[in-house]
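Appendix B.2, paired examples.
Example (i):
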Amino acid sequence: MKLRKSLVALTVIALMSASSGLAEASKGPVRIQRLAAEQTQQLLGYLNAPPLEQTASPRTCRDADNSDKYRKVFLLPTLAGQPGDKTFYCRVNARTVLVDLGGAFVTEDNNPESTWTTAGGEVLRFTRDNLEPICDDIIAGYYSKQKATATVDGKALRGVAVSTPAFISRIPKAAGQLYVDSKEVGHPGKLATTYCGWKAEVPLQPGRHVIVVDLSDVAGARTVFTYEIKVER
């Protein structure tokens, strides 16, 4: 199995040994699938360095998306690839926040040598049509269980497993190879993408809250994200 360097933002090293059977469809509640797609689009859109050189995207909560007037969900910054501890100070007026509990994004490319081999032996290129089966395979194998541990105000947080259908992400030039991939597939600055991993939509009452997510098992080295959140409604 040959993994492209840009395949996995959140689990580049760990997925080298992933083994699973091929799933048949996207997974998880449709609402969470849509939010996961939006949070991944946010991650990719705010990259200002290649994923393996940037710890979180966006780098701060001030850059994160708090504009969802219909669902009232704040998309918290997520791990971009580089291990390391981060503390975020967030002021939100949303009713819930979306927390990433470890996952990967998969993007298309035009390299015939970039392939994913399933446990069943099927070899898939990273074409748009194959992104969902690849992500389904990842969620059925390496991400069959939640890798990150997390708490909300000291209480354990459990998420749901999610793999999404393909969606389009905007890729900045600063994203390095990902932007090169977008040029090579014929639409610079845009890539078909899928997400596979674990998410939690957390309702928060007005006041101060602390969410701590230990992503060390995901990142391959100590990586703890602390979100200090003030909810103002």
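Example (ii):
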Amino acid sequence: MGGPIKKDKLFYFFNTEISRRNFPIAASITQPGVIDGAGAFIGCAAPATPAQCAAINSILPRQFGQVPRENNQELLFGKLDWRPTDRNSFSASFNFLRFRAPNGLQSAIALNTGAAVGGNGDDSVRVRTGRLGWTAIPSKHHGQ
């Protein structure tokens, strides 16, 4: 939305975009060579300790199915323009972005390597920028 605040002198503009995306990852460990037929981690041969094997095998059942994931974003932009004279104009703008993606580092729709849990994480971006500007048209006749 935008328009005049004071006719031919002061104007505003505002824009916002908001998106929400809920898209879970289909997750499993079915890559050959990672788990055996019983669902146990193949890497539990020597030199792995029994405690290491028990730890990895205890998390395997939780890695099957869907892992929740979201992408949420708010983008806002505002601007003011002021023309005090025919030869001078001023503008000020501000841009705001906030992006949050819990479990959003892995972007594939499905992963069969366990990376949906073991290699995933939250992503976050915050940007705030502002700008001030002055435009002047010099006079053709100096001193007048």
